[in-house]
Fold this protein.
Amino acid sequence: MMRNIVEIFELEEDSPHEDVEMGEDDEEPVVDLEDQRRRTERLRGVLPALAQLWWSDSDQIDLAAEKLGDGSRDPKWRIPLGDSGVLAFFLDLLKSHILKYSLKIHVLRVIGNSCADTDENRARVVNSSYLPSIILQLKDTSLLPFAIPVLYNICIDYEPAQQQASNSFLTEELIEVMSSPAFNDNRAFLGYTCKLLDLMIAQSSEPELAPENTAIVLLKIAADRESPTDMDDFIALTNTAVAYLQHEKFQKALIAQGAVDTTLTVLVDSYTRFDSHPSIGEPDQDDAKALSQMRSNLNQVLSDVSALPEFKEVYPVVSPLTMSLRRWLLSPQLQLQVCACIMLGNLARSDAACEEFVHTSRVHIPLISVLSEATDSQLLHAVIGFLKNLALPLKNKEALGAAGLIDVMPRLWALDTLQQIQFSSISLARQLTIGTFENVRKVCQRLSDDPDSPASTRTYLSLLIALFERTDVAPIKMEISRLITSVCRVFTSYTGRSPEEMERSRIKFFEMHPDVGRPLSFMVSQDKWPVVRSEGWFVFALMARFPEGAQCISDLMHDVAVFQPLVEMLTGKKIIDYPPSSSSPSSSPPPPPIASPSGSGTGSTSSTINFEGRSPESVQPNAQAAEMARIDRENALVLVSELLKNRGKDMAVMRRTLFEDLLKGGTEIMLSYKEAIPLQGKVLPKEKRARAGLNLQEVAAESIIELS
């Protein structure tokens, strides 16, 4: 019987010398169906002999399995082994019987070699549910050199096997094995183990079935300095851990089991244990690229982990972990700096935490230092993001400005090739100016005290206005406009200084920035961001309460892009374009009287609202469209009322008349909306709503002639 088994493989002149462990590298063999049939028949003929050897408990079964295992190394025998029933015979033995160690090894060899790059045999394993019995062999650490490659050969490139392996808790068995000290003797199989786990986490069932400490075990092996891994295994372990850490279950376990420190250790070790600067030569460059990608992936995971609520509960602002991260801010290694900014920035989610960061930890000092020199866009983005969080509490704004944060930002505003950094840095500057007089004064102070220097007539705000003029990026233009309105808001509503000092500051501001109107006009004339437009009308109303501000707003009204939305808000009608009269204003007949809403000439309406001295109202970010429209209209009425109060006596007759009628018409519309409120929230149809009786064509024509 043994002679028959041995003679089978004499069909081959040359035989491979090693068991097949990586089917993915094999070339597709040329299939000779007649040769395949002949091999199948020969193998089928030895099945009775194999059965007799097994049931007679002969030691020869070990030798027979060994010969078949040797023969199965040849790809030409793989299909015949399955078609003949030999593979199923050994699979049944492994599943249904307790085998001697020597026989089990050769049985695993037959299975693993037969399934290498052979979906037909993989299907036999999966369809008859033999995979769980193979997974159980992992419990014997002495069988790991055989069981792991067999599982890899079955699962690689074969989705049904991967799904069944996941459902059969392969990950749990692998993690248990890897957690055992005995696994140190099998480190050579780390690569296969990680590849198997990569296949498992791709299955939909895996996040639920895998042990929650899966990523932790992998990271601990990567961070083990007593038995350090080589670079390839280090990268494989970390990348596999990262794949599991994409899921919240494993992120929370990382925090709960105190393994965030281990993760940070892995990131540091990627620099200290391996050369991050490739030498000349292709392999070194590939290694450096793989390390860089691994660090980037790990940083993303740490970002997600630190954003979880559980993270701030375990790691407060002042803790050993945050102390390490603060040291990383000035590290020469880019990814350590980025990681520190992101993780610390995610802790800065409340006013209390931000204030502790600034006034206790003084974390803003190294951040400003990095911002003054960094050129990498990823690092700049991370630093600015952290500082924007820190700048939210009012208590922090002045401290950040005093530490020199505003002084380092013009360098970033000049980075025209990094528009996202431009935008973020302008947004940070805007945040610093909100309600903080000292920072506003810093933004508006002269760049030089030397009267002979051109910089003496320019400010940081001048640099932003120049950027507004040269850029065509709408979000950047909008953020500059919002910063200017923030500055104007402080100059018109700040109460921390005397009225006399505020007046001097306002006058100086408008003198130093005669071109401030263009960004302000852009803010209220655009319709892409309604909340921002509302913010503009609100600040316009604030500015109009003071003579110097009213002068600026009055000048802006020469721009039809500003004047038209104001008219539309207050009358519900658009200005109709048409050519102005060819006659000169001096020879034109006087305009006809404008009918008042009440029909009583220029008399007042039956119901009036006095807007003099009334404070404008700010629109909340989450306001509904109807509420936003109401507030915009009332702010516009305050604006017109204040313009008439502060500039009316200096206006030409036609212009003053126009603003007076806008005020009347806007008041009438506002009253009509108030009257509609009791109707269970229903608004009257357009044709039944009260409208201002403005003859817009005539008034606008005369006004355009006058303003031209």
